[in-house]
Amino acid sequence: MRPIDSQIHHTTTDAAQLTLDSIGDGVISIDVDGKITYLNPAAERMTGWLRQAAYGRSHLEVLRIIDGDTRAPALNPLTMAILHNKTATLSANSVLIRRDGQETAIEDTAAPIRDDKGTLCGAVIVFHDVSTTRARSQEMVYRAQHDTLTELPNRLLLTERLTQAMSFARRHRTLLALLFLDVDRFKRINDSLGHAIGDQLLQSMAHRMTACVRESDTVSRHGGDEFIVLLPEVAHVIDATVCAESLLASLRRPHQLGKMELRITVSIGIAVYPTDGADADTVLRHADIAMLNAKMRGGAQYQLFTSHMSNRVAKALP
User: Fold this and answer.
1) pLDDT for 144-191, tens place per residue?
2) Of the N and C termini of the chain, which has fewer Cβ atoms inside 10 Å?
3) Which residues are known catalytic residues?
4) Burial letters for 158-177: b for 16+ Cβ neighbours within 10 Å, e otherwise?
5) pLDDT tens digits, one per residue of 186-218
6) What structural domains does the chain harbor?
């Protein structure tokens, strides 16, 4: 190399080094054997490894990545870039495990490094922290699927789970049950005590109802003072009635709302799939009809849907 070429080469190298040391993204390079050859300061902060300590170590030791959902080790993009000699990216929900155990959600791209002759001589990865972005995205998804007052699943999430449960029930020839629950004389509570007390009551109910069911069940707020309980797997109809009795007893106990003690009753309608309907809308409608029938009988009870209820409720409605 001529002197002038050497000077240009060193100037370019120094400029590249300065750039890599200044950017906010982490940068790590390895040789063809998977040994660390370089970490920039951002990579040092995110991995917890100083450049000198990491140099010559396996990239799998320094860049520990797991799947945030399964907690299983994720395919390392540097490994894939070397193995396939092409650009590789992280799978979704990837998490970087820092040397001290701290976890950071990351996104990245790894690419092979080739010399002037095109021979593979290593790989480089550029990655950045997406914890805030991912958390914000997860929060948006959660808010779209949950009721803001009670934090219970809303209609959207209930519909999704009900669809999945029906698919399972069809395949395995099992039953599922929907319990449609409504507070007796709730309007009187709102009108006499105010909406703030009504909201506190709904929150208290949500807490108790969730405590009454299995983890596999879903308690959902349908709107206003209406709740839906999905029991995705029931061996017999009596299992749904046992759940209804438990809910009636739990919700009947006094609700302590600040300094006020409030007693309520509820009406519950029960419909079973596939006995009471072949699709989600029909089963839900029949559970609603059974609940209205319970109200017509004075409330504070549950009713199982029967085919003659529809006409009875229709005649009673104005």
Assistant:
1) 999 999 999 999 999 999 999 999 999 999 999 999 999 999 999 999
2) C
3) 225
4) beebbeebbeebeeeeebbb
5) 999 999 999 999 999 999 999 999 999 999 999
6) 3-136 (3.30.450.20), 152-316 (3.30.70.270)
